[in-house]
What does this fold into?
Amino acid sequence: MKNWDELYAECMSCRKCDLAETRTNVVFGDGARNAEIMFIGEGPGEQEDLTGLPFVGRAGKLLDDMLAMIDLDRSRVFVGNMVKCRPPQNRDPLNVEQEACIGYLRNQVALIKPKIIVCLGRIAAMKLIREDFKITREHGKWFEKAGVQMIALYHPSALLRDPRKRPESFEDLKILQAKIREICDHTY
Ligand code: URA
It folds into this structure.
C-alpha cells in the first residue's frame, strides 16, 4: 500500500490502460482524506477531464444538490470514480480499464477508511458491491463488505436523463442520511 503522496504521484503518470492516450488530466478524486463517506462514480466526463476534478459538470452540480439535501458538504466527504481517466465519448469504462484502475481506488479506500461507500450508478455498484447488481431493483439498499456499509444510488446523469427517477432517489438519500446519523462520528 502506498501513502497518499506516493499514490497521487503514481496516478498522475499512470499508463496502465489505453485511456492514458486520450486523457487531458487524471482525475484522482477530491475531498477529505479522513472522510467517513466516499462517493464513487463511473469515470470522468469532459469537464472533469479538462479540470482534473471529479463531478464538476452538470452531473456534478446535481450531486452537490443531492448532498445539500442531506446536509453534506463536498469538503467533508470524498468524491472519486471507478476509472481516473475519461473514456472517449463518455462510453462505459471497459472491464480491462476498470481492472487496471481499481488498485488505486482500493488504496484510497485503505487510506481513508470510510464507514460508508456510496456507489453512484450501476458501474460502480457492479464492481464494488456485486457483479450482477441490478440498480433498478437494488438502489437504496444496504450491503456490508469488510465492515464498510455500501449503498448504490442512481447516477446523477441518470437523474438528468430521466427525472421520473428523482422521487425514488430522494428516498434513497433519506436512507443514506439515517445511516450517517446512526454510524458517523462527525456531525454534518
Ligand atoms: N460522471 C461520473 O461518473 N463521474 C464524474 O466525475 C463526472 C460524471
Summary: DSSP finds nine helices and six strands in the chain.
